[in-house]
Amino acid sequence: MDEADRFIALITGRAVTPDQVAEAVRLRGRLRALRDEVEQTLPGLAPDATGAWRSAAADRYAERLVELQGQFVEVRAALGAADLHLDERIRHLSAQLDPQLAALDERRPGWATG
């Protein structure tokens, strides 16, 4: 995208705004807090089965614990992937925003961005 395209994006509302970048950064903070909570909850929520119980109900309970642990591992992985994707999106938005603001500054002498 050249300078003219960036300026057109700014005046037509298709441009990246500082608020969009700030919202993505805020969302990333919330996502990381959720991921950390899942990380901390997993060990206590579904402890490993000891095999000490010997009944059909105990065996089924142990199976469900293993399934639950597996689901938490999947959630943790999905949150990690979402965090990486959001980081990439923030970098992309920031890379678009900086030149747009520079193009706007060049078009409006004396106008400060910040």
Please describe the structure with a list of short key phrases separated by commas or semicolons:
114 residues; Helix Hairpins; 3 helices; ESAT-6-like_sf; Flagellar protein FlgN
CATH architecture: Orthogonal Bundle
**CATH-defined topology:** Helix Hairpins
| Total number of strands | 0
For the record, the CATH class is: Mainly Alpha
Query: Low-confidence parts lasting 5 or more residues at pLDDT below 50?
Result: none
The SS-based structural class is mainly alpha
Protein name: Flagellar protein FlgN
InterPro entries: ESAT-6-like_sf
Please describe what this structure looks like:
With 114 residues, the chain is mostly helical. It has a single domain (3-107), classed as Helix Hairpins. Helix content is 79%, strand content 0%. It has three helices and no strands. It is rod-shaped and about 80 Å long. The two termini are 23 Å apart. InterPro entries: ESAT-6-like_sf.
Brief overview:
The protein has 114 residues and is mainly alpha-helical. It has helices at 3-12, 18-45, 56-107.
Strands, helices and their partners?
Blueprint: H1 3-12, H2 18-45, H3 56-107
Helix pairs in contact: 1-3, 2-3
